[in-house]
Amino acid sequence: MAIATVDDIASGIASGLVYPFLKILTAAKAVGSFQSAWMGTGYPGAGVASPAYTAGAGYTCDRTTAGALGQTNGAVQNWIGKIAAASTVACSILVYDRLWSCSGMGFALGAKAVTTPGALPARITDSGVGVRAFVEQFVAAGAATGTLTLTYVNTAAAAGRTGVIPVVVSAPVAGQLQPIPLQVGDVGVSQVTSANNSATWTSGSFGITLMKPIAVIPCAVAGLASSFDWAQVLRKIPADACVQFAIMATATTAATLFGEAIIIDK
Fold first, then answer.
1. How many structural domains compose the chain?
2. pTM more than 0.90
3. For residue 177, what are the β-bridge partners?
4. Cα(136)–Cα(144) distance, rounded to whole angstroms?
């Protein structure tokens, strides 16, 4: 049955499946930077770097992909009913559905066209409304300058849309995420076309990752767990969602995230 009353939520939480997590992240670049837990060790286990942007396949992911939370699909509809979470460093824990990702974009000046990018996973039925784009570092990189421009297709199927990071982060660390602003008026991304550096960077490579936000969990005090019930975190989890964690850092320290999520089926 679907959720119709608070009693439905309460009964769902009482019988919901508990998914513990513990993710050890690498050190953040700076205060206010975003750091992905995708390749962090712990449980769920570490993910791996996405296929190269020239691979032509394998860009999408789901609940069975290494690094994902790995929740069981519900018979009706999965929801996050409750989350208890803490971090060894004060931060905001970000919960995403990871949708699409590529890697291997070198830091040479110029555009890197994605080979056969394909569509978003079938679980995304709204053409990508709310989908956010990030530069993701699967490896650390050298000094960098200039802008980075993402060319993409928006939720209205309009191609040639561009989002620009006006000043790229120099020497980004492994695991770092750089949010890419979208073109004014756009509300999401349905497909990635290419990424373009305005200047040659020193070394390394980067990837582009598309994710859809699920929840934000504030951890204001290091080491102190906070619990958030359905009134704060009740969110639909699509079937086969590739649930992953990230943080917005408050220190240049490697954080360990731990806690549990109760997922209900209603």
1. 1
2. yes
3. 34, 136
4. 15
